[in-house]
């Protein structure tokens, strides 16, 4: 009777699966670090100097900053335009405009947030990204 030559596929298959899992995990970690997840939107941003902003906001026009603070109050809301919040940052109240695109975010007085803001015409702080602190 002839015997079939059986080679064990077990060790090479297991090793291949381990390598695949490690590569997928490393790819996910790189995506989260460099992509939109985590702190990606705030990576490398300068914190807004609130006293300088309050002194002369128009001189900062066009720049992008990070503002960290506690939401004090909501001054106004309009469905198509978004809302205007008072945020206390560095001990000073500043107003930030949150566009309607963030309407799915639950923002309430007393909560702390990090905002990525652009200083637009008139010295208005327009939110481009936000995350709870």
Low-pLDDT ranges: none
Rg for CA atoms: 25 Å
Shape, principal axes of CA atoms = elongated
Oligomer: single chain
**Number of E strands:** 5
Q: Which short descriptors sum up this protein?
A:
133 residues, alpha+beta, OB fold (Dihydrolipoamide Acetyltransferase, E2P), five-stranded mixed β-barrel, 5 strands, elongated
Can you describe what's shown?
It is a single chain. By secondary structure, the chain is an alpha+beta fold. It folds into two domains: 10-37; 42-132, OB fold (Dihydrolipoamide Acetyltransferase, E2P). It is built from two helices and five strands. The chain has helices at 10-34, 50-55, and strands at 64-78, 82-89, 92-98, 112-120, 124-132. It has a five-stranded mixed barrel with strand order 1-2-3-5-4. The longest helix is centred in the N-terminal third of the chain and has 25 residues, at 10-34.
What's the SSE blueprint?
Elements: H1 10-34, H2 50-55, E1 64-78, E2 82-89, E3 92-98, E4 112-120, E5 124-132
Parallel strand pairs: 3-5
Antiparallel strand pairs: 1-2, 1-4, 2-3, 4-5
State the gist of this model.
The protein has helices at residues 10-34, 50-55; strands at residues 64-78, 82-89, 92-98, 112-120, 124-132.
